[in-house]
Amino acid sequence: MANKIPIPSRQARQAGFWTKKGLGQHLLRDPSVVRDILAALARGPEEGVLEIGPGLGALTEALLEAGGPVLAVEVDARACQVLQERFGGRPNFRLAQGDVLEMDLHALCREAFGEAPFHLAANLPYYITTPILAQVLESGLGFGRMVALVQKEVGLRLAAGPGNKDYGALSLMAQYRSRVALLRKVLPGAFTPPPRVDSALLLFERLERPAVRVKDEAFFFRVARGAFGKRRKQLKNSLAMAPGLDLPPDLLDAALVKAGIQPTRRPETLDLPEFARLADALAEALAARS
Question: Is the pLDDT of residue 266 over 90?
Fold first, then answer.
């Protein structure tokens, strides 16, 4: 295989395509990264793949050749024109044009894959990596494995554990739903145009059940985001200042005591079970007061 995957120049020119800085487009061109994505997906012949951000289809082509249905979600109309011209005649290809943040991914996947297992592959624009991953993880989308290309710093946050400077709300969201592994660093030359920073290839293996039990998932995620909103402050202060939580000091004190957590600890020192206990204690206290 060549060192670089050729860009489909004719179709791109006909569609008037060029990469848009505003969309954060960096087209994957390194065959070794494509091979690593396919290997990490470990996909069965009948299993589907939801691909977010296919660009001009470097990974899409490999996914289609491996068999099984592929649902590609792309926001750029000109990229969609290229994808449709290249792959529209293949029976296992389906294209959904639009902003993934505004789509009902559950409904799209049911329509594309039915009850069959599916996985997720994504080359995520750096500027919306966190919102996309938050949507996928918080919504409980039923993928088996997800392999994602992200900015290296984001990859470090996703895989980080308590006590690590990279540990944060995104770490908790990812590890609540899945086992996260940092597979490799990806250098800028793997893309066209090359980004100014290194990337990381991550594997998320979805857990059959969340890593911890919580009474209210949505509230748990709100508490996690609120705690890390002021990550340098002590936990009690960061939660008291969190927008949208509206936690009176006495209620917050009582919940921390019930959860067995010192209010002077910093958010990055709490592990996933501790955040679960804290969210449940806060939810109970709020319910009792209402």
Answer: yes
Look over the chain and give the mean of its residue pLDDT values, rounded to a whole number: 91
- Give the span between the Cα atoms of 269 and 150, in whole angstroms: 25
Is the CA virtual torsion 225, 231, 236, 238 positive or negative? negative
Adjacency order of strands within the sheet including 48-52: 93-97, 70-74, 48-52, 118-123, 145-151, 199-206, 178-186
Is the predicted pLDDT of residue 38 greater than 50, yes or no? yes
The DSSP element (H or E) to which 190 belongs, if any, is none
pLDDT surpassing 90 at residue 101:
yes
Residues 227, 276: one domain? yes
Work out whether strand 70-74 and strand 145-151 pair parallel, antiparallel, or are unpaired: unpaired
Percent of the chain with pLDDT over 70: 93
Per-residue pLDDT at 22 exceeds 50: no
Instruction: Provide the angle, in degrees to the nearest 10, between the axes of the packed helices 169-177 and 272-289.
Output: 100
Residues ≥6 apart with Cβ < 8 Å to 216? 279, 280, 283
Q: Is 51 within the bounds of a domain?
A: yes
Q: What pLDDT was estimated at residue 231?
A: 81
Q: Do 110 and 20 fall into the same domain?
A: yes
- C-alpha angle with apex 139: 138 to 144, nearest 5 degrees? 95
On whether both 148 and 221 belong to a single domain, the answer is no
